[in-house]
Amino acid sequence: MQLHELKSQFKKKNKKRVGRGGKRGTTSGKGQKGQKSRSGHRIKPAEREMIQRLPKLRGLKNKSLQKKPIIIKIEDLNKKIEGGIINREVLIKAGLMKKSDKKIKILGNGEIKKSFQVEGLKISENAKKKIEAVGGKVV
């Protein structure tokens, strides 16, 4: 007699397969017939469903369509540009902005030692004072 020839004392009972893929039996907690017991029963507009999936964005309205300007500090100009005229082309060559950037604003963070002539760019009051104090111009 070998191991595979042994017979069990108890009869093997087949389980009844009911309510597969759910929890606890026949209807899997969905109740009986009806629209809500079927698969995909949620009836909601696609937009509302998207908003509910992203809860942090609820209530945000009237988002500005205008992009904020790219900020360039005076100390960056001091480091990367040798002085003279500053405009879009000079800033692109110096690597301080991309060609695709639309708006630029120069802020007065840091110290300035070289004199610049700023042309066609937005500039803060503080930056303007610092540039003019060193002998530069804002056009």
UniProtKB/TrEMBL annotation:
<feature type="compositionally biased region" description="Basic residues">
    <location>
        <begin position="33"/>
        <end position="43"/>
    </location>
</feature>
<comment type="function">
    <text>Binds to the 23S rRNA.</text>
</comment>
<dbReference type="InterPro" id="IPR005749">
    <property type="entry name" value="Ribosomal_uL15_bac-type"/>
</dbReference>
<keyword id="KW-0687">Ribonucleoprotein</keyword>
<dbReference type="InterPro" id="IPR030878">
    <property type="entry name" value="Ribosomal_uL15"/>
</dbReference>
<dbReference type="GO" id="GO:0019843">
    <property type="term" value="F:rRNA binding"/>
</dbReference>
<dbReference type="Pfam" id="PF00828">
    <property type="entry name" value="Ribosomal_L27A"/>
</dbReference>
<dbReference type="GO" id="GO:0006412">
    <property type="term" value="P:translation"/>
</dbReference>
<keyword id="KW-0699">rRNA-binding</keyword>
<protein>
    <recommendedName>
        <fullName>Large ribosomal subunit protein uL15</fullName>
    </recommendedName>
</protein>
<dbReference type="InterPro" id="IPR021131">
    <property type="entry name" value="Ribosomal_uL15/eL18"/>
</dbReference>
<comment type="subunit">
    <text>Part of the 50S ribosomal subunit.</text>
</comment>
<dbReference type="GO" id="GO:0003735">
    <property type="term" value="F:structural constituent of ribosome"/>
</dbReference>
<feature type="compositionally biased region" description="Basic residues">
    <location>
        <begin position="9"/>
        <end position="23"/>
    </location>
</feature>
<feature type="region of interest" description="Disordered">
    <location>
        <begin position="1"/>
        <end position="59"/>
    </location>
</feature>
<keyword id="KW-0689">Ribosomal protein</keyword>
<dbReference type="InterPro" id="IPR036227">
    <property type="entry name" value="Ribosomal_uL15/eL18_sf"/>
</dbReference>
<feature type="domain" description="Large ribosomal subunit protein uL15/eL18">
    <location>
        <begin position="72"/>
        <end position="139"/>
    </location>
</feature>
<comment type="similarity">
    <text>Belongs to the universal ribosomal protein uL15 family.</text>
</comment>
<dbReference type="InterPro" id="IPR001196">
    <property type="entry name" value="Ribosomal_uL15_CS"/>
</dbReference>
<keyword id="KW-0694">RNA-binding</keyword>
<dbReference type="GO" id="GO:0022625">
    <property type="term" value="C:cytosolic large ribosomal subunit"/>
</dbReference>
